[in-house]
Design a protein that fits this description.
By secondary structure, this protein is an alpha/beta fold. The chain has three domains: 3-57, Single Sheet (N-terminal domain of TfIIb); 66-135 and 335-531, Rossmann fold, CATH 3.40.50; 139-330, Dimethylsulfoxide Reductase, domain 2. It has 25 helices and 19 strands. The strands form five sheets. Strands 5-4-17-16-15-6-7 form a seven-stranded mixed beta sheet. A five-stranded parallel beta sheet has the order 10-9-8-11-12. A three-stranded antiparallel beta sheet has the order 1-2-3, with no helix packed on it. Strand 1 and strand 2 form a beta hairpin. Helix 4 runs parallel beside helix 23 (480-490) and helix 4 (111-124) packs across helix 24. The chain is globular and about 70 Å long.
Length: 532
C-alpha cells in the first residue's frame, strides 16, 4: 500500500459541528476512523456517532436505478440510461411550465452537489423551486441574521467557546446534540472558573444540569425573557453607547419597546422567579465576553425569527459582538446546511448569498453560467412546505427529492403522504433503500454516500473542509453532482455541465462566489485540485 494512501482526511457527516476525521487503512484491506488532531474545529475529538460511522454507511444501500409507472406497481431494475431518458423526456414536456418542477434537497449534500443542482434548476430549467430541509431547521436563523446583521453568516467561531466568560445557551441540548462543542465549554467550566453558563430551556436536560443558572421558562416566552433582560440592562445603564451610536440603527424604538418588560411581568409570563431573571441580567452585565448559542428550540419555533432577532438585539445593546469570545451563534444541525446556503440552496437564494429577486445578482450568475439574460426567474420559488401544497393542487408535476427522508422529517406527515400520492412523477435520489419516502416514488436513483465521493462541506463556524473519497461506491451508485450534470447535458446544456471532476465544480463555484464568502476556500480548492 502506498504510504500517502494509508490515511485519508475527511469530515464527519452527521451534524453541523464538522469534526475532522481520518480514515486509516487497515492491514485487512478495510478502514478505521479516528479524530483528526490537526483539524481546528474539533482538535482530534470525536463523538460516538463519528467514531462508529462506518457501521452505518454501508447498510441497506440502494444499488441500482429502480422504476415503476405507478405507485401501486412493484419496482423493477432499469439502467442509468433508461432512468435519465425517463427524467429528461418528462422535463422536456414541462419546459414551457418550469414552475411545475421542484427539487427538495438536504444539508447532507456536498457543496458541489448543491451548486450543480442550482445551475440545473434555477439556471437551465428556469425554476427557483429548489428548497431543502434547512428551511425546516435553519431558516429562522437565516432570516434573523439577515434582518439584524445584513448577512446570513454567524459572526462567531469555535475559538469563541474558549474565550467567552458567559455561555448563554437557549433551546439547545448541546451536551447531547453537539457534544464536541459542549466538551470545550465543560473543560473550562469548573468550580471557581470565571466561565459561567446560563441555560434557557423548559426541560431539565443534560446541558441544563451543568448550568450555573437554569431558566426553566414556559415554552414560547423566549422574547419576553430576552426583552426582560434588556429592560434591566438598560435601566442599569449597562449598554454600549459608543457601539450603539456607531454601529446600530433603531435604538430609540427598541428602548421604547423595552419599557413594557418590567421584571415582575416578565417573570410571571415566563414562569420563573424574578430573582432568577435579575440574576441572568447581572451575569450578562458582569461578563466581558458573552457568547449565546442556540439550536432547534429557537429555530423550529413559529416565532423563530423574532426570537433570534430579540437575542441578537441583546448583543447589539451591550456590544457583545464582533470581538473574540462574543456574539450570537446558531448551532447547525446538518453537516453542510451552511455550505448549501453559500451555494444558493434555498428558494430565494443564488450562489454567494445572492438573491433571485435582485436584478444585478441574477445578471452576474447568468453571465457566469453562460446563459442568456432572463434565464433565472426573478421570483422566489416554492418553499419546502409550499411544495406539498403545490402537489395537492396539481400544479407540481415533477418532484425531485434528494438525500433526505421527508416522510420522517416533515411536519404533518399524513398530509404529506396524501400529497405525494397525487404526484404525477416523483424522483427519489438516495443512498438507502428501503425508506419511508421510497414508498411514494416512481423512480429511485442510487447516490453515493459519505466516503464514496469527494467534495467540501461548511460547518457551523463557516469553516470549509475537504471530504475525500476513500471507498468505491456500491453497485451503480453515483455522486449527486454527477447525476445533476448528466441530466443537464442530456437536456442540451453540454457547455454548462462539462465538469469531469469535483475539483472543476468547486473551481467554478469558488470563482462565482469570490469576495462574497469568507475566504476559507483557497486551501480546500487547492486540495481538491490536487486530488484531481
Amino acid at each position: 500500500m502506498e504510504p500517502e494512501k494509508a490515511v485519508i482526511k475527511t469530515l464527519c457527516p452527521y451534524c453541523g459541528v464538522g469534526c475532522g476525521l481520518e480514515a486509516v487503512a487497515t492491514a485487512s484491506g478495510g478502514w478505521k476512523i479516528r479524530g483528526d488532531r490537526d483539524h481546528p474545529s474539533s482538535l482530534g475529538m470525536v463523538c460516538v456517532k463519528g467514531a462508529t460511522i462506518l457501521e452505518a454507511v454501508g447498510r441497506d444501500r440502494l444499488l441500482y436505478p429502480l422504476f415503476r409507472e405507478s405507485l401501486g406497481q412493484p419496482f423493477r431494475r432499469i439502467s442509468w440510461d433508461q432512468a435519465f431518458e425517463e427524467m429528461v423526456s418528462r422535463l422536456r414536456c414541462l419546459k414551457d411550465n418550469p414552475h411545475s418542477m421542484a427539487m427538495y434537497g438536504s444539508g447532507q449534500l456536498l457543496t458541489e452537489d448543491y451548486y450543480v443542482a442550482q445551475k440545473l434548476m434555477k439556471g437551465c430549467l428556469g425554476t427557483n423551486n429548489f428548497d431543502t430541509n434547512s428551511r425546516l431547521c435553519m431558516s429562522s436563523a437565516v432570516s434573523a441574521y439577515t434582518q439584524s446583521l445584513g448577512s446570513d453568516g454567524p459572526p462567531c467561531c469555535y475559538e469563541d467557546l474558549d474565550l467567552c466568560n458567559l455561555a448563554f445557551l437557549v433551546g439547545t441540548n448541546t451536551a447531547e446534540c453537539h457534544p464536541i462543542l459542549f466538551n470545550r465549554l465543560k473543560k473550562r467550566h469548573k468550580p471557581g472558573s470565571p466561565l459561567k453558563m446560563v441555560v434557557v430551556d423548559p426541560r431539565r436536560t443534560q446541558t441544563a444540569e451543568a448550568a450555573d443558572l437554569h431558566l426553566k421558562i414556559r415554552p414560547g416566552t423566549d422574547i419576553d425573557l430576552f426583552n426582560g433582560i434588556a429592560h434591566l440592562l438598560l435601566k442599569w445603564g449597562s449598554m454600549a453607547t459608543d457601539f450603539i451610536e456607531g454601529c446600530t440603527q433603531g435604538f430609540a424604538e427598541y428602548a421604547a419597546l423595552l419599557a413594557d418588560y418590567e421584571p415582575q411581568i416578565v417573570a410571571q409570563r415566563c414562569g420563573i422567579a424574578t430573582e432568577d431573571l435579575i440574576e441572568a441580567a447581572k451575569l450578562w452585565q458582569g461578563s466581558q465576553r458573552v457568547l449565546s448559542l442556540w439550536s432547534m428550540g429557537l429555530n423550529q419555533s413559529s416565532e423563530g425569527t423574532a426570537k433570534i432577532t430579540s437575542l441578537i438585539n441583546l448583543h447589539l445593546l451591550t456590544g457583545q459582538i464582533g470581538r473574540p469570545g462574543t456574539g450570537p451563534f446558531s448551532l447547525t444541525g446538518q453537516p453542510n446546511a451552511m455550505g448549501g446556503r453559500e451555494a444558493g440552496g434555498l428558494s430565494h437564494l443564488l450562489p454567494g448569498y445572492r438573491l433571485v429577486s435582485h436584478p444585478q445578482h441574477r445578471a452576474e450568475v447568468e453571465q457566469a453560467w453562460g446563459l442568456p439574460g432572463g434565464s433565472i426567474s426573478p421570483h422566489p420559488g416554492l418553499r419546502a412546505t409550499e411544495m406539498i401544497a403545490a402537489l395537492e393542487t396539481g400544479s407540481l408535476q415533477f418532484f425531485w427529492i434528494v438525500a433526505t427522508n421527508p416522510l420522517v422529517s416533515f411536519p404533518d406527515l399524513e398530509r404529506v403522504k396524501k400529497a405525494l400520492k397525487k404526484s404525477p412523477f416523483t424522483v427519489y435520489q438516495e443512498a438507502y433503500y428501503p425508506t419511508e419516502t421510497a414508498e411514494y416514488a416512481h423512480l429511485l436513483l442510487p447516490a453515493c454516500q459519505w466516503s464514496e465521493k469527494t467534495g467540501v462541506m461548511t460547518n457551523s463556524e463557516r469553516r470549509v473542509t475537504l471530504c475525500q473519497a476513500f471507498r468505491d461506491p456500491p453497485g451503480e451508485a453515483r455522486p449527486d453532482w454527477e447525476i445533476f450534470a448528466e441530466v443537464g447535458r442530456r437536456l442540451g446544456f453540454e457547455a454548462q455541465f462539462s465538469f469531469q471532476t469535483a475539483a472543476e465544480v468547486y473551481a467554478e463555484f469558488a470563482a462565482l462566489t469570490a469576495n462574497r464568502l469568507c475566504d476559507h476556500s483557497g486551501l480546500s480548492h487547492a486540495l481538491l485540485a490536487e486530488q484531481g
